[in-house]
Design a protein that fits this description.
263 residues, alpha+beta, eight-stranded antiparallel beta barrel, three-stranded antiparallel sheet, 4 helices, 11 strands, 20% helix, 54% strand
Length: 263
């Protein structure tokens, strides 16, 4: 009986001893499903110092080192800035006095001219809806023109060697309204306060003078966007002097057209 059992278990024992080295060398089946980085980490643990960096590893490291705060660009773009050039038909008006000679000069005698202005400002988001959006901001202008003029004295004498310089500086709030289905058209309304200065310069000292007054205005118009940064615009403005010396006046109704860039 004992010899019979030995004959049965002896082949089984020898077979087990022959297969055991193969089982010890085999890797677990689940390691095949591990991601490459996990597998490389296991190898590094088993054999420290034998794993070398690959180009893919360097690329991943460089990408991780170049990460930046994603809100930085958002914080920098809370405002858009604009710069442009506008032209408007302008006619000096009213009567001003030379305080030294007490002579009154009618500025309307000098006729109309084109008043160029540098336009500047900043704007940001105010409201945004699925169909429309509204921006708000500040807009300013600096305008200057020097035109040929003449000075008529009370005695009837006319000094023809005269230039009349007009300077205008203004700033005010502005609202921009855009319909999303017509993104190239912006409706603009706003207000403005500023200062208007007339300076009459002549080789005849009796014709020299300088007068200034504050003004207030409201305006409305449209911007026509040609591309994301460049647009044409037109504005209607109504200005009134709030404190004027003598009988100095400003042209009340005015149309302005120009171009501007926004970035």
């Amino acid at each position: 009986m004992l010899s019979h059992r030995v004959d049965i278990f002896l082949p089984l024992l020898l077979g087990a001893l022959a297969v055991s080295p193969l089982l010890l060398q085999a890797e677990p089946a689940q390691s095949r499903d591990l991601p490459p980085l996990t597998e490389r980490a296991r190898e590094e643990i088993r054999q420290p110092g034998r794993i070398k960096a690959t180009p893919n590893d360097v690329q991943v490291s460089q990408s991780m080192l170049s990460l930046e705060d994603p809100l930085r660009e958002v914080r920098q773009r809370l405002w858009d800035y604009k710069l442009g050039l506008g032209l408007q038909m302008f006619r000096p008006s009213g009567t001003v006095r030379n305080d030294f000679t007490s002579s009154d000069f009618n500025l309307s005698d000098n006729g109309s001219t084109v008043l160029p202005a540098l336009i500047f400002g900043a704007q940001g988001k105010l409201l945004e809806q699925p169909r429309w959006q509204m921006d708000w901001g500040l807009s300013g202008r600096v305008g200057y023109i020097s035109q040929k003029a003449k000075a008529r004295f009370d005695s009837g004498f006319v000094e023809s060697n005269v230039r009349l310089n007009t300077f205008m500086l203004g700033v005010g709030p502005q609202l921009n309204f855009v319909m999303n289905r017509v993104p190239w058209l912006t409706t603009v309304v706003g207000a403005e306060v500023g200062r208007l200065t007339y300076t009459q310069v002549s080789s005849n000292d009796l014709a020299n003078l300088s007068k200034r007054a504050n003004y207030q205005a409201w305006l409305a118009g449209f911007d026509f966007r040609l591309n994301p940064t460049w647009s044409l615009y037109t504005r209607y403005s109504n200005r009134q002097l709030s404190s004027a010396p003598d009988q100095m006046q400003v042209q009340a109704n005015n149309w302005e057209a120009g171009t501007q860039i926004v970035w």
